[in-house]
Design brief:
Layout: E1 11-20, E2 26-33, E3 39-41, H1 46-50, E4 70-73, E5 78-81, E6 84-85, H2 86-92, H3 95-104, H4 110-122, H5 128-133, H6 143-157, H7 170-192, H8 206-215, H9 226-239, H10 246-255, H11 261-272, H12 280-294, H13 298-306, H14 325-341, H15 346-359, H16 362-366, H17 373-384, H18 391-413
Antiparallel strand pairs: 1-2, 2-3, 4-5, 5-6
Helix pairs in contact: 3-18, 4-7, 6-7, 6-11, 7-8, 7-18, 9-14, 9-17, 9-18, 10-11, 10-18, 11-18, 12-15, 12-17, 14-17
This protein binds carboxymethyl coenzyme *A.
């Protein structure tokens, strides 16, 4: 593997920010500048020099690190992995190539890619002990709970995933996680529907192999259309990284305690589960189904959202205030896939109607709310045959390279443990009541 990921420090401009505090103290703070000319005030010396901290609940304005991996310009709707525009990767790349790019910083050569694919194939099986562990879960267990538990448990069977003191082990550890997460996901699905687990097939590509494990049965091998494989690959590419989102920040935070890679990404799975993050893809489909089943006019749903009785799931984003480029690609992909497969899904029509209603409504315009990655992705997953309760698992499979890349970047920096501070607002000191 090439080792192009050199962790760079951001430039510190000669400019400084001047801060004056109410008690008269003042401080010069360095201004750091990123490679896309983003400016940030470095407040690391603030507390030591003045006794003050900054407060920024939900971190809307806080840069937790500098990173070489992904660039987003939310006002312009730009997303790039290692400098490559997401639109170009979506059109020309494969998921394995994107995973390699994210983790190692450069597109692989043909030999590097074929070696990486070989590693993925070599590591697609689960240890029998881990496979047997599925028996400990009830069939109705949520696949995200199972995924997180199994990723953590996999380190028990692969202790090498916990020994990453040098760079040598990283390619194997990364390949093991990216490969096995797909086997774990498919096995948990088979278990939930009472079918025998299908072992991976080393002759298939990453996405085709996943579909085989999901949908083949002992007497009938599932043969997906090439468009289905391509749609799945596109879905995974578009979900592969998104800089310091909630789950990735969680992975970096957990990793900062020097927790091992699999423990750190297992915690990322838990963070992703929530409906404000990756869980939104399930919530969108439930919302569209509810509108479809109740026959509620889209205009009525939008009015309820404006009255805050409901939320328009799959809309809004902390960073994108123009459009989410992933949603644009997925909308077209949903249209293309459904027409190729000859599927007519009323949910796609409802989604388009909702989008149109929202984009022309003052409430959404004023707040700069646009469809995000989760708005159309569920329609594609539905068409592929993925059950709704697996949608967030699909997001997790896609995000695995991003989590690994961020964990590795932070690991190589060997920075300090992440430990935010707080402003305490509880009771002042008081005495424990005397015994009666
Ligand atoms: N429907 C209705 N109103 C919304 C929505 C929405 N989906 N999203 C934001 N708003 C309103 C919000 O009520 C607030 O209004 P006001 O200023 O009057 O109180 C304003 O827009 C700003 O919203 P916010 O909650 O302060 O924004 P945030 O940056 O904290 O949250 C978000 C971002 C994505 C969590 C939020 O937009 C949301 O809950 N969206 C729905 C869930 C969703 O689709 N999540 C997936 C996000 S993209 C993929 C991922 O990260 O996993």
């Amino acid at each position: 593997m090439s080792n192009a990921t050199e962790v760079k420090s951001p430039n510190t401009e000669s400019k400084t920010a001047h801060l004056t505090l109410p008690d008269g103290q003042s401080l010069e703070l360095p201004v750091v500048v990123g490679s896309e000319n983003e400016h940030a005030i470095d407040i690391a010396a603030l507390r030591g020099s003045t006794g003050h901290i900054t407060i920024d609940p939900a971190y809307g304005n806080t840069g937790a690190c500098s990173s070489d991996i992904t660039y987003i310009d939310g006002d312009k709707g730009i997303l790039r992995y290692r400098g490559y525009p997401i639109e170009q990767l979506a059109e020309h790349s494969s998921y394995a190539e994107v995973a390699y790019l994210l983790i190692w910083g450069e597109l692989p050569t043909a030999d590097e890619l074929s070696h990486f694919r070989w590693l993925l194939t070599e590591n697609e099986m689960l240890h029998e002990g881990l496979r047997n562990a599925f028996e400990g879960f009830p069939p109705y267990g949520h696949p995200m709970a199972i995924l997180s538990a199994m990723i953590n448990a996999s380190a028990c069977y692969h202790p090498d995933m916990m020994q990453l003191e040098d760079d040598e082990h990283m390619p194997l550890a990364a390949a093991k996680l990216i490969s096995k997460v797909r086997t774990i996901a498919a096995f948990s699905y088979k278990k939930s529907i009472g079918q025998p687990m299908r072992y991976p097939n080393p002759n298939l590509s990453y996405c085709a192999n996943f579909l085989h494990m999901m949908f083949s049965i002992p007497y009938a091998r599932y043969e997906p259309e090439p468009e289905v494989i391509r749609a799945l690959s596109l879905f995974l590419i578009l979900h592969a990284d998104h800089e310091q989102n909630c789950s990735t920040s969680t992975v970096r935070m957990v990793g900062s305690s020097r927790a091992n890679l699999s423990a750190s990404v297992a915690s990322g799975v838990c963070a992703l589960w929530g409906p404000l993050h990756g869980g939104a893809n399930m919530a969108v489909i439930k919302m569209l189904e509810q509108i479809q089943q109740t026959g509620m006019p889209v205009s009525e749903y939008v009015e309820k959202v404006k009255k805050r009785e409901l939320k328009l799931m799959g809309f809004g984003h902390r960073v994108y205030k123009n459009f989410d480029p992933r949603a644009k690609i997925l909308k077209k992909a949903a249209d293309d896939l459904l027409s190729t497969l000859g599927i007519s899904d009323p949910k796609l029509d409802i989604a388009k109607e909702l989008e149109e209603a929202a984009l022309t409504d003052e409430y959404f315009v004023e707040r700069k709310l646009y469809p995000n990655v989760d708005f159309y992705s569920g329609i594609i997953l539905n068409a592929i045959g993925i059950p709704t309760n697996m949608f967030t698992v699909m997001f997790a499979i896609g995000r695995m390279p991003g989590w690994i890349a961020h964990w590795y970047e932070a690991f190589k920096e060997s920075g300090r443990i992440c430990r935010p501070r707080q402003v305490y607002t509880g009771p002042n000191v008081r005495d424990y009541p005397a015994a009666k």
